[in-house]
Design brief:
Blueprint: E1 10-14, H1 19-30, E2 34-38, H2 42-54, E3 58-61, H3 69-83, E4 88-91, H4 107-134, E5 138-143, H5 156-176, E6 181-188, H6 197-200, H7 203-210, H8 221-232, E7 243-246, H9 250-253
Parallel strand pairs: 1-2, 1-4, 2-3, 4-5, 5-6, 6-7
């Protein structure tokens, strides 16, 4: 048996029109999953789903703004209607509208970060996990960040939200483990995505970051995708409630 085979599994992946989310969707499709591409922009979703189908994969596109519960409900209902019950949920979509000391963050930005980065994960898990449990199991992968493991003077609210995502994984792993539902986090280090552009595009910031990374470079989206496939597949069948750090060694050396 191929430990990484996802043939026939339905995988719902938020924030999957670019960056880490897209890489996860592409790789899960390559391993046989039927993937749902989702972000706020329907046209972007359609384009990525078409790319995957052109490569021989199975993908549909459903736009969703994770800030709205009714859209999350619509996303899960349409996924089940079009592809069948959800086997794999990847909570990747997140936002960070503020860069600077947490002392100075506006209330609106703080609330927005918590609502999106914690609230949407909580709500999607509420919507998807019971169905997994009824069918004998499933897997949830939450894309967190090493920011949730360290203090930071520029990404404080975002880091708090990502630490909370790790705790969501631990709590849900305990609650749903008896039903064979596994819940884990991936904590990427600095990865070359549009979301983290402010951190890697500035030469000084980039140099200050990678000098502490044993691999002396930042990661690429595809290097996170492999971890997601592992956690969603039979290869990760005895792994739950964990945070898998994929950061080029940054957290162990800085």
């Amino acid at each position: 048996m191929n430990l990484f085979d996802l043939t026939g599994k339905v995988a719902l992946i938020t924030g999957s029109t670019k960056g880490i989310g897209k890489a996860i969707a592409v790789r899960m499709a390559e391993h046989g999953a039927r993937v749902v591409i989702s972000s706020r922009n329907q046209e972007a979703c359609d384009e990525v789903a078409a790319e995957i189908r052109e490569q021989g994969g199975d993908a549909i596109a459903i736009a969703c703004n994770i800030n709205y519960k009714e859209q999350l409900e619509n996303l899960t209902v349409r996924t089940v209607d079009q592809l069948g019950p959800i086997d794999i949920l990847v909570c990747n979509a997140a936002l960070n509208p503020y860069y600077g000391p947490i002392q100075d963050i506006p209330d609106g930005a703080f609330d927005k970060i918590m609502h999106a980065n914690i609230g949407s994960v909580h709500r999607l898990c509420q919507l998807a996990i019971p169905g997994m449990a009824e069918r004998g199991g499933g897997a949830v992968v939450i894309v967190s960040s090493i920011g949730g493991l360290k203090g930071t003077d520029k990404l404080g609210a975002y880091a708090i939200s990502k630490a909370a995502d790790m705790q969501i994984a631990r709590n849900l792993a305990v609650e749903w483990g008896p039903k064979n539902v596994r819940v884990n986090c991936i904590a990427p280090g600095l990865v070359r995505t549009d979301f983290a552009r402010a951190l890697w595009e500035n030469p000084d910031t980039y140099a200050a970051t990678v000098k502490h990374y044993p691999l002396r470079r930042i990661g690429e989206p595809d290097e996170i995708a492999g971890a997601a496939v592992f956690l969603a597949s039979a290869a990760g069948s005895f792994t739950t409630g964990q945070t898998l750090v994929v950061d080029g060694g940054g957290t162990i050396a800085s």
